[in-house]
Amino acid sequence: MIGNCNMQLLKAGIICNTLLRCLIIVCCVGCWTSAFAQTADKVAAAPAEAIQEAPASTSLTLLKQAALYDTPTVPVPESVAVSAASAPRVTATEQAIDQNNALAEGEKQPKSSSAAAVPSGNAAVPAASLSDKQKAFIDKYSHLADGQAQPAASSSAASAVSAGQTSAAASVAVAAPAKTKAAFDPNEYRPGVTWKPSQSTHFNIYTQARSSGIGSSNMQMTFEAAYETLRRNIPWMMSGKVRVFVYQDHDNYLKYEPRAKAWTRALSYPTRDELVVYDEPGKQKELQEVFTHELVHVFTQQFFAPKGSTKLMTPVWLDEGLAVYMEDQAYNGSQGGQWSQDLRKFNIVPDHKIQTRSAGILGRTPKPAGARRRGRRVVFVSFDKFIQEGSLAAMEKQGRTQDWYLQAYAMVRFLLNRSGGSSPSNRMQFEQLTKLLAQGELKRDPVTGYPLKDKAGNSVYQPYSLEKALKKVYYYNSLSDFEEKFWQWLDGLK
């Protein structure tokens, strides 16, 4: 009897425990449903700006919370367009969590080409199962499901969605794949030539396929030797790889290269970071010299001009003078080549009286450099005229092109290497001079010393003229002072 009572009490306890657990579950589900409903109502009433400024993952979460998770749905294929009457949503809790996590981890969603797109695996919600607020919310903010800000209504479909139309004509196509950057085409400027690409440490090389004969085997070494010459002297100007096109011979160079002239050995296109040469077996030393010259033009353009500029920005006298100087260095290092020899053997004189403070006499004409020399007479023009942009063209008309280049070489050599060696102090001064000419000097607040900024937050630079830069770096008070020191140096050059 007692056993039966105990058994009945045990069964009653189990039943009560079971009913209590069911009651707890029902209460929890009710609270969870009420919380989601309240969240959906708040989101639907929120301003559009607040939703658009939220992170992509937050916007997607709000969209999922506003929908009904227990409504039967039919999957929609990814290739099918979405109409304004049936906005996308996730139909299972597991899918919602997976996709939300994917966004949080930075996975890229396909970009939409218009107002709405279908995330992979989503399904449509029957319109009858949604409240009015849920319909309005999904219609207005479904574009946030792919993590994109709402695009402007640039198509008829987007306009229909923003106006609240539910016609099937307001469908929006799935986004097209993102565009990829086109590969470099070596025939863009040189059609009709078959190029074989190769690389060295600092160059991307395109060599014309040979129709006959054997080409030089050490072209890459020649190019890298030229690069090394520049690196020893002007490393602060050098950056990035340079493209080089190598024609198989002089005839093909003249036939296919648009700017080729019969007397040229190489060409440079500084605004495109390109050099053009032709192969001439047995003459690699000559090629190295002219290649070095043209390579200077590419790097000075990179240094003086803003990136992407199509205008040559380097002062002509400095650009050509530095190119000739490096060409001379490529011949025989610090001993120099033909330009150095010409500077020593020619009878070089100024075309005007040089103002000088020596011995308290003004207007003294210095002893002509090389007055003891028997070489060709060369006349250098005044520096204030020489540094003008049209000076080269003017001397070309007079048939004095060679003299102009010799003067540019002499001026740059005096500034960069007047002692004839590889002085670090001279190189540092020349670096400072070129930087002042290229970008000016950083302006600072006179009180705090901090760099000044413009309205866009960019640093402000004070532009420098050549005369002002020479005074700051070399302590020459004027161009006349610079010119006087130059002639003193040239007169003592042996």
Individual helix count? 17
Strand content: 5-15%
Separation, N- and C-terminal Cα atoms: 134 Å
Largest sheet: 5 strands, mixed
Radius of gyration: 39 Å
Low-confidence stretches: 47-94, 102-125, 141-173, 358-366, 368-372
Q: Which shape, going by the Cα principal axes?
A: elongated
Strand tally, please? 11
What's the number of domains? 3
Average pLDDT confidence is 73
Q: What structural class should be given to the helix and strand makeup?
A: alpha/beta
Helix content: 40-55%
Question: What is the gist of this entry?
Answer:
The chain is of the alpha/beta class.
Summary keywords:
17 helices; alpha/beta; elongated; 494 residues; Glutaredoxin; five-stranded mixed sheet; 45% helix; 3 domains; two-stranded antiparallel ribbon
Please tell me about this protein's structure.
This protein is an alpha/beta fold and 494 residues long. It folds into three domains: 46-72 and 84-170, no CATH class; 195-314, Glutaredoxin; 335-491, no CATH class. The protein is built from 17 helices and eleven strands. The strands form four sheets. It has a five-stranded mixed sheet with strand order 3-4-5-7-6. The chain has a two-stranded antiparallel sheet with strand order 1-2. Helix 9 (284-304) runs antiparallel to helix 10 (316-332) and helix 10 packs across helix 14 (401-417). The longest helix is centred in the N-terminal third of the chain and has 44 residues, at 2-45.
